[in-house]
Amino acid sequence: MQLRSRHLLGLEDATAEEITLILDTAETFREIIERPIKKVPTLRGITVLNLFYEPSTRTRISFELAEKRLSADTVSFTPATSSVKKGESLRDTVQNIEAMKIDMVVVRHSSSGVPYYLTQCTQSNIINAGDGAHEHPTQALLDMFTIRRKYKKLKDLRVVLVGDIKHSRVVRSNIWGLKTMGASVAVCGPSTLLPFEVEKFGVDIFTDLDKAIDGADVVNIMRIQLERQQAGLFPSQREYTNLFGMTRERLQLLNKNYTIMHPGPINRGVEITNEVADGDSSVILEQVTNGQAVRMAVLYLLSGKKEEE
Amino acid sequence: MTKEKIETLMDEKDIARAIIRISHEILEKNSGAETLVLIGILNRGADIAKRVADKIKEIEGIVVPVGLMDINLYRDDVHCKLDQPVIQRTEILFDVVDRNVILVDDVLFTGRTIRAALDQIIDFGRPRSIQLAVLIDRGHRELPIRPDFVGKNIPTSKDDRVLVRLMEKDGQEIVVVAKSGMKKSPSEIKKALKSGKKGGKK
Questions:
Q1: Neighboring chain A residues of B119 at a CB cutoff of 8 Å
Q2: Would residue A87 count as lying in a domain?
Q3: Cα–Cα distance for residue pair B33/B76, rounded to 1 Å
Q4: Contact list, B81 vs chain A (CB under 8 Å)
Q5: How many domains does chain A have?
């Protein structure tokens, strides 16, 4: 069993076998990050460029550590201190860095489709670390990995994605990945934060949180992305919290053995209260630990794949 | 049907006897089982390691910890192959520091697997010693590595394929060699094994 593509652009086209391969491989790496020496020599000689055009704490550090734990050489790029400030284009930037012999590129960008564009103008393996409002495949993979570790399955679990469905790439990747793996998926948010033609996702749609989470196993709460919104999509943060915030009272509606997730960063007191975020059923920090293992698995599985003749 | 040149090297009883002898030799060399830990290389090395541990328990009454190891992440040819090998779990749930580690594998050939395993063990800590036990030594080393305990030494040509089948994974106990020049795929050998279970054709 192998991945079909030499890039990871998204989960929309991924098969259940491919997702299972990545999650199974990640189980191995999860064990490695618990070892006293958290390092294996597998990617020696491979150089990875971390090209983050958008701010990131978790994803970027997670990828950097994953690369280092696999013994890859890494370089990180920050637009603010680069020649992007002098007007150098994305294509020129990447091609120039690639000329210094890069093998893989991990890219985050505010425009959807940038990872695909890079596959067309470079020879490197491209890993999408979030592109605009399109996909964030490694986040969805680590979410699924975390759920699968707890419930030992994904099939037939009820997963509700709450919050800013319109601007969230995490939601898109999660919907496609979870549906492929046979989970039952619902989305819930204010109607102004549901995307156009949301019904085409083929998931249950709610604008009432209490109805959405009734009988759910997993609630994955999305951050309100203030940087991606024009003003006026919801009246006030307080109203949003009242209608869509995850509070202790709402936890009663969930199935026994429920799980609370959040991809971070958290707006405490807006989409989730402190009690819920720090409660016993919250796996938010577990998600972060698992993220490293999943990213190691993705780097490992793609690293052997050279350009097709 | 083409003429098959599959030779049986060991049957069920030969394998059992070899494991008993190896277990005794391990105990003799280490003056008992107190300091021992066993680490089997996946897949079949792990099964053999468990059997050796059972034997040692029978002989000495001491339970020796057994670990499993997947060495694919430490290979030297990861980037030469087009497809990445599927990684399995490494389970070493004990401390190797200051222990006598017995590394167990089914077939010793080029020595590259053992090199990878040695590197991996040392990443877990500094053992007092690492000793190597194998069921079959077929020669053709490409690295300066030698076994401490051997079930059977057999002369092979470099292109031969030696196959160990064990009850745990394969439902049969046999060691065969498929002679070179036949260019057999593993599935063909499996088929041949099924049709002529005992003895094979000489």
A1: 41
A2: yes
A3: 33
A4: 304
A5: 2
Please report the domains of chain B, with CATH numbers, ordered by start residue. Answer: 13-155 (3.40.50.2020)
| Half-sphere exposure at residue B162, Cβ-oriented, CA atoms within 13 angstroms | 22
Based on the fold, state whether residues A185 and A108 are members of the same structural domain: no
Q: In which element (H, E) is residue A234 found?
A: none
Share of chain B above pLDDT 90, in %: 62
Q: How far is B54 from B51, CA to CA, in rounded Å?
A: 5
Determine how β-strand A104-109 pairs with β-strand A47-52: parallel
Across the range B57-85, mean pLDDT stands at 85
The verdict on A103 and A149 lying in the same domain is: no
- Asked whether residue A1 is assigned to any structural domain, the reply reads no
Residues A119 and A166 in one domain: no
**DSSP 8-state code for residue B31:** T
What is the maximal distance between C-alpha atoms in chain B?
55
- C-alpha to C-alpha distances, B70 to A51, A233, B39, B77, nearest whole angstrom: 32, 52, 10, 15
Q: Are strands A158-162 and A218-221 parallel, antiparallel or unpaired?
A: parallel
**Complex confidence, ipTM:** 0.72
User: Could you tell me if B41 and B164 are in contact, meaning their C-beta atoms sit under 8 angstroms apart?
Assistant: no
Q: Are residues A171 and A130 located together in one domain of the fold? A: no
* Facing residue for A304 by CB, picked from B78, B90, B120: B78
- Residue in this structure with the two tokens 């280092």, named with its chain if needed: A68
The minimum CA-CA distance between B76 and chain A, rounded to whole Å, is 8
Q: In this structure, what CATH number is given to the domain that contains residue A30?
A: 3.40.50.1370
Counting Cβ atoms within 10 Å, is residue B145 exposed (0-12), middle (13-18) or buried (19+)?
Answer: middle
d(CA A118, CA A95): 9
Would you say A133 and A169 are in contact if contact means Cβ atoms under 8 Å apart? yes
Statement to judge: residues A144 and A130 lie in one domain: no
Please tell me the pTM assigned to this model: 0.86
Orientation angle between helical segments A169-180 and A16-32, nearest 10 degrees: 110
Average pLDDT, whole number, for chain B? 87
Nearest to A271 by CA among A167, A164, A143, A196: A164
Confidence of residue B184 (pLDDT cuts 50, 70, 90): low
Shared domain check, A284 and A141: yes
For residue B4, what pLDDT band results from cuts at 50, 70 and 90? low
Among A40, A47, A306, the strongest candidate for a mutation testing the B interface, having the largest count of B CBs within 10 A, is A40
Interface test with A, best of B68, B70, B76, B79 (most A CBs within 10 A): B79
- Of the candidates B74, B81, B82, which has its C-beta nearest A40's C-beta? B74
| Amino acid identity, position A164 | D
Do A127 and A141 lie in one domain? The reply is: no
| DSSP character at residue A165 | T
The 8-class DSSP code of residue A114 comes to: H
Print the domain residue range for A295: 16-135+289-303
